[in-house]
Give the backbone structure.
Amino acid sequence: MIKKFIRILLLSLWFGAITFPFTGIRNAILLSISIMASLILWNTLSKGIIKREGIEIVSKRIQTFSSKIPRRILALFFIFLFLILPLFMNNYFIDIANLTGIYIILALGLNVVVGLAGLLNLGFVAFYAIGAYSYAILSTQVNFSFWASLPIVILLVGISGILLGFPALRLKGDYLAIVTLGFGEMTRLVLNNWDSVTKGPNGILNIAPPEVGSIVFREPIHYYYLILIFVILTTFAIKRINNSKIGRAWVAIREDEVAAEAMGIDTVRMKLLSFSFGAIWAGLGGVLFAAKMRFVSPESFTFFESVIILCMVILGGMGSIAGVILGAMILVLLPEALRGFEHYRMLALGAGLILMMVFKPEGILGGPRRRAELRPDDERIYMQEIEIISKPKF
Amino acid sequence: MFLQQLINGLTLGAVYALIALGYTMVYGILQLINFAHGEVYMLGAYLGIIILGFLTSIGFTAISLPLAIIITLVISMIFCSAYGMTIEKIAYKPLRNAPRLSPLISAIGVSIFLQNFVMLSQGATDRVFPPLLNAEGLTFLNARITYLQIFILIASVLMMVGLHLFIMKTKLGKAMRATAQDRKMASLLGIDIDQVISITFIIGSGLAAAAGVMVAMYYGLVNYFIGYVAGIKAFTAAVLGGIGSIPGAMLGGIILGLMEALGASYISSEYKDAFAFGLLIIILILKPEGLLGRRVGDRS
């Protein structure tokens, strides 16, 4: 008991000592006291009520509860809910809902690449940017309408997905992540510096709003229904592909590439497909973003944006569609709710990512299969796999 | 002109090499890309400003400027070593057996956390380094080399030589090499793996801090997001030299620094940052084992 207390004391003193040059001595003392208090609180509580499995029990309950209701009815209920929801919201909330919708589409797209095929893409924002800028340029310079641009943009983004995929597919894991990151940054640099086409850092103004018949989209509520339709379409398409032969091939590649190849899966083609299929949704998100904001600039497409989208996928649960939608909602709505603590929310996001990886890597709604994969320590069967995986590579 | 860019490039390259060493050492032992390494460099740069500001305020810099700079460098390195070790214990150690995606993501978390921590505690605006060293220097053949550049070059070379001797001649260095070759075997032979990993992070972070202080003095400006680009460039240098290889990181840093300085003056300065990214992609695709690395089946 005393030993534990000394440990906690030393730990909090350590944190105070390493932070004081930045925060000043008074804040450092406050910090170490609060760390000490929370550690003691955690230690006493963890013996009683809260167990480390607490979160798991709750999420398991949600899962069993939701599995009792037929999926189709649940989906219809949610669609109905979202259809009537804007009637109770003012323009500010509808605007936030629109943003949430765009991020849901982006996160679902990234989920195909990261969650299903297991290829960590840190440059996903590049496709988002290409989508938004293609529509901006088509709209302002060629005078194409929203509906005419949409197929062209999607084709363009799909092709750029394949173009990135070809060289990147020779790489795995961390290396792939870095190359995609480089691709994302290069895209942003090109947008920033290619003044004659992209107008550089000033961005492109006066993008045409979408039209349906004689209705020109001006109010947030117009965009709300437009985005809602695309969210439903995305969810449906990804759900279908998830359960198809292609989706199963992706999961097989994620779990074991060699085995997948041995079972006759054309891994190169499947990986390319996942890259460009994921990219298409990012492109769609980009078009919607450009149409909604009626303005694009390189600032909206930083590396940080890729990270946020990745966080949505991870938070909700990689590979789970409901989880990814939940993750996107949390990460758009929570910062809005915490506007007063604007500066601290990024701090919390960083800390949250670390805690998530340490305590619950499979996300809020990650399935048992994912959990087994991400927590090799828990199950005995996976011990053998660790033997193989952790064999040194040098 | 050419000679001038050569000098600037060498200075920049020496700094990249120092940061790259941290990447390459951690990768060699844990096969982990320490994404937060650039942030440690940023913390080092800030510490440089804070400590030198403190030394100026108590009137120490007026007594002996070179000594003050060396003290700043050493204290900053000590603090950053502590940061590196703490980061490893919190964010990487619990994930040592997890799939490789997990530590990468928690590293991104560390990176976001540290950036915002510094932004909150030190402000979002640029911090100016106290202008202690004016641009005095030597001139030969139309090229100027400032005393600061000479200091950076000498300090970097000394640190690299020191690191090389540490790894090649000491018992701990031997333990590090053994761990890099085969972690499990090393632990069977009685090497304390946790200790070796801690030391790797301590040394890597210390070198990054030194690089941070020197770059802050060189450019005179620091802000909370310098770590990201510097981290990517240093990582490029590490990959160029062959990740996991210590001489490779040094060579890669110098080559990248030279390329950037020459590219910025002869090709285009707007795309200066794109050179590093482009180079990184090209190397990873064409020669992922780098210049001095060994070919490893897992990577390509």
User: Anything to note?
Assistant: The mean pLDDT of chain A is 81. Chain A touches chain B through 60 residues (CB under 8 Å).
